[in-house]
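---------- Forwarded message ----------

FYI, see the Plexin-A4 record below. Original note from H. follows.
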Amino acid sequence: MQRSTPTGVMNVMRSLSTADVVYSYEANVGEYEAQVSVVWNGDHYVGSLPVTLYKCDILGSHRDHADCSLCVTRAKKYRCAWCGSVCAYSEACPLTAATECPRPRIDVIKPLSGPIEGGTLVTIEGSNLGLKEEDVKGKIRIGDIPCELIDYQVSVKIICRTGPAPAEIDAPVIIGNTAGYTESTVKYSYKDLELHSVFPTFGPQSGGTLLSITGFHLNMGSSVSAFLDELPCLVNSSHASGTRLLCTSSRTAGPRTIAQLTVTIDNAKRVLAKNPFSYTKDPTIMEVKPLRSFASGGRILSVHGTNLDSIQKPQMAVYMDDGITVANVTVCRVVSASHMECPSPPVDFEALINARRMQLAALTAAPSSSPLSRRKRAGLRPHRDVPRSVTLRIGFLMDNVESVRDLKKHFQQLQYVEDPSYSAFIGASLVKLYKGDTLVIEGENLNLASDETDVNVTIGTRSCNVTSLAATQLVCTPPEVQPTGTDEIGIKTESGLPLVVVRVGQNVRFPIGYLQYEVVKPYTFPPEAIGGITAGGVLLVLVSIAILLVYRRKSTQAEREYKRIQIQMDTLESNVRSECKQAFAELQTDMTDLTADLQSLGTPTLDHKTYVMKVFFPGVNDHPILNDPKRRLTGPRTNYDAAMMQFEQLICNKHFLLTFIETLESQRDFSIRDKVNVASLLVVTLMGNMEYATSVLRSLLFRLMEKAVSTKHPQLMLRRTESVVEKMLSNWMALSMYHYLKDRAGQSIFVLFKAIKYQVEKGPVDSITHDARYSLSEERLLREQIDHSFVTIHLVQEDHYEKIPYQPYHTIPLAPEELEEKIQCRVLDCDTISQVKHKILDALYRHTPFSLRPAVYEVDLEWRQLRGSSVILSDEDATSKIMNGWKKLNTLAHYGVKESAVMSLVPRKMTNCTMTNGHCKSSYRNCVNAYHFNSTLTHAILQNGNNGGDPENGVNHLQTFHLVRPPMDDTKSNGKQWSPNGQMDRTPKAIPEIFLTRLLSTKGTIEKYVVDFFRTILTVDEHVPPAIKWLFDLLDEGARKHNITDPEVLHAWKSNSLPLRFWVNFIKNPDFVFDIYKTNTVDSCLSVIAQTFMDSCSTTEHRLGKDSPSNKLLFAKDIPKFREMVSTFYQDVSDMPQIPDQEMNQTMQQLSMSHIGEFDTVAALKELYIYVNKYRVQLFENLEEENYCRKLQLAQRLANVACVMEGEEISAC
């Protein structure tokens, strides 16, 4: 519908008679240029002339509001007048035109805050802001503070500069004209600018580092600038917030330390002193390997260089043939200052191949006389029998560093080959029957650009251990029990069978089909067997009667035997004391060296991203949240991405999130696994807003307390993970305690781990069963007397061995002569060759994180003998001893290695070596298996057709053992026993329980380090994280709110929340924090210490007796002392001053800013949305029932998410 318009007047003159003609126009503009044509008698054109039509109500208005000052100041030719409350044509106004305009009207004020020093340019927009500049000059102020007029636009816009304020105040903006003064409804705020910190604290000298400056009131004022000394730091005002300001560092001539950071906002100037930032040398790239990838990218390339940690977000790029156009980029993960890992960027392989063909065709058509053209054709012509491939130049995008963008002069190009192709299982249903052997998956081009480490095979959510990868075949070992019927991320399949998925790198995924384990049919006993069992029962009764008759005769003999054993026990106790003292002295020497190294080098702490993945999603290495978030920003936007942005807004609504969690937990099929997954995904999503995550956690904990106090046993709250909030609490604590672990408590955990490892390796350890002479766990105790002696090996590493550089935990340089010197390593003569290699690698790379070391199966042990000869030692070879169907693993004693033997590690030659079931089969002596690293190889079956076995087919099934061979069948042993050295043993076997005293020996040796660790984490000092005080105060508040008078309940809540839910997890799994390898034997010892810590946090007294488990008895005398430490810790935390909400919020904001962009939150939202779809009906019902959710129309907003995802208009929802 068109609005009515006022008319314009035109006088038509010249040769015609004058007449007043009224015209109108529909356009909503103040002026309209028109052309008037005069026609006489309908068909005679007389002439035309231009006319100007106008509307006074538009000329005299601003922002759709009538403006008196604009109206009366218009040119006189318009004859506009202020008629009542509108601007109208003067001759059409029925009222007397007004000569004075009303008071000012204020519509917009920006900015609404500025520094107390003033100098802010405030823009005020509105109407009736004076007829001229003099009307408002001197009549603008903020409260009582004048604002100097800088710029004036008649009636509609004023720009003024604020004056200084004595302190922080909030005051209205006041403007006056000839009619009076007007006061704004919103207030302008004077704020005191504060600077707190800057991150990161160092960057490359070429600049480009994005600095995050934290403080208060950083987004106020009209002009913001930052300087690093005299160097400008370019401010990004569009991403500024009240507590964070972003700026990009500029280039400098060389490395330097910045004395101060200066931030200026208008007239306010603040300085962050004490060397807040340093320029370092630009990073360099020294090595990239491997230089081969499949087209879809995602293969992890290892990059070595210098100063790599000075870049926050390094990227790897591949360039097209022109050397300028970037084909694709990926974000790298910095491991240390000298090492980072980069996924290979994906490329359009077919397009590149076609481009090469067209280029080759063009060169072929050109004259071939030129030697250069012949060389080009030769380089572009594909070789026969070689898979298609293209090579592209690589470079690295590291802030403003130009030297690493072009690596063509220093490195070969990255070669891309076709993606591997894995074939699905045969059959329409894609179901394969698994009968207990290895799983073989067929395909093509499987190992062109990948090896076993690049391929991950999952059956359901369980991993299938890849043992062999050939060009057309992959072999892996499935788990012993059929996994649940899901895909790799836990989504149930329609067939109810686990889905087999092959992932190559990070980007390539192949669903192969479903795997069904063959079910063994129940066996029915025949009548003959039943009769035999009956006869055996009768015989057993007769034998029991005979034993009773002989008992009295043997009683006297038993008493004599008892006295003899008593004497042996006294002697054994004395030996244990001396052994414990000696072992403790030796361990103290080793630990002193370790402590000195830690003070100079630090601990091998994992980076934050890896730490979060291990805690949140243990065992998961290819979660969707690990995708690069920047790739989503630069790529095409999909409906799914837009929908997830709206879903994120719902997640950030506290009422929706609480209703969402409550709805999920009320569903019967919402399992514990689902609760853990949802909690982890929520915390990942909210990592950028930890302040909000803390508020949600607080509300959920109060809800959990309400449920707990209504039960019979409220002290069980937080004991187990039975709700989403309990896992959220664990994850929240993990994020809040990371820096405390890294800088304070982590060293005591690492020292305890090393002490246990050193002590365990001082005695024999069975490579197959993992039983050890020195252990805290009865289940992992070696209950045999193994004769052994120490052997000192002299290590010589020559130039032919391509060593991985010795990298310390930080950046402590080592001289080249230190790398080539002869190193001594102390081992046992009963160690297998793999165990010896492991100890040698520990000695060579004691300052190197475990992930950067060579693996045991990548090297061979070479024994240097007289006259320049050498022998390659291996776990199994032609000289291995075979005893009654059992093969004994080779040891140093087997080869006759004596004291001061000279050995070296050499690269393994993998020729003709195939891996099957984790074993390496070959006729060459330098090909051995990795028993030490695979605990599933117990009693592995090896095939050997040369020794015994079935004479018809030449196959011998030999079982391997190391120190102790499992018991033999009576029919094979004829009542005889085998000793550990392989000889027939006719002496009575020793009582195994006698060796339990070795538990006491081990405990006495490492007890000091257990106490030191407990004392570190149970001491209240200035290093205690605020999260602990906040959590304990929250539990105290909940106890007071629900009138909990029993102190044991509150004690149990605190124990369940921090010691049991946080510390016990890291005691059992130090590899969640450090880059280390944890053996099964060490793991069992850590479990005993974790159980001791749990008992120390309990107020319940457990009565111990002779039948109590050994792990309970081992530290029984120490637990009262530990309990007192726990109680004192709880009391000291309660006595600490309460943390203000502002300080806690600031801590959470800093935590959020330090980890922005680590994970792909959109991927996490997609995983959460799976649960929305699953429980859509129940969620919509609860959103409609809850009053506040209904007022906010949260159900409708959730429905809009589904509409956007499906590409529909929101109005249609």
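H. also flagged this: The mean pLDDT is 81.
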